[in-house]
Amino acid sequence: MIKEQENEVIEKDYFHDLQEIKEAIRTNQNKAMVVVNSAMIMTYYEIGTIINKRKTWGSKYIKNLANDLKEYGKGYSERNLQRMVFFSKTFKKYEICAPSWGTNSLENII
User: Fold this and answer.
1) Residue 4 to residue 70: CA distance in whole angstroms
2) Do 51 and 65 contact (CB within 8 A), yes or no?
3) CB atoms < 10 A from the CB of 62, how many?
4) DSSP state, 98?
5) Which of the 8 DSSP states describes residue 87?
6) Number of H helices, E strands in the chain
7) What is the mean pLDDT of residues 65-76?
8) Confidence band (pLDDT; 50, 70, 90) for 96?
9) pLDDT tens-place string over residues 13-55
10) 43 sits in which H/E element
């Protein structure tokens, strides 16, 4: 009888701990996604700004960049690089960097 009660307590504690661990994983995975997404947006903006400085180089410039950036994945295709240029022309850096009222700052996320 006592052994059964001990097993029930251990099992109950185990499932409680398991739920806490799962919640910690979910919460921190979401925080990590926010940080990574923010970093990628800033990277795209920076790339667009760099390319925009060289706009007189012609269309082969972007095509060559896309070819040379293939090692970093499909996200740096000629079309995507053109979108990054458009993105950097459309927004000012402070517009992308400034968190909205509903968004946690990086310090609060980590």
Assistant:
1) 61
2) yes
3) 21
4) S
5) H
6) 5, 0
7) 96
8) confident
9) 899 999 999 999 999 999 999 999 999 999 999 999 999 988 6
10) helix 2-53
Could you tell me the two tokens for 89?
A: 């022309």
Model confidence at 77: pLDDT above 50:
yes
CA distance 19 to 36: 26
- Are 110 and 35 in contact by the 8 Å Cβ rule? The answer is yes
Evaluate whether 103 touches 35 at the Cβ level (below 8 Å): no
Residues in the chain: 110
Q: What type of residue sits at position 30?
A: N
Half-sphere exposure of residue 30: CA atoms within 13 angstroms, side-chain side: 6
Integer angstrom CA distances of residue 97 from 22, 26, 28: 31, 26, 22
Is the distance from CB of 62 to CB of 82 less than 8 angstroms?
yes
* Amino acid letter, 17: D
CA distances from residue 41 to 51, 58, 91, 97, 99 in whole angstroms, order as listed: 15, 25, 12, 9, 13
- Sign of torsion, CA 30 34 40 44? positive
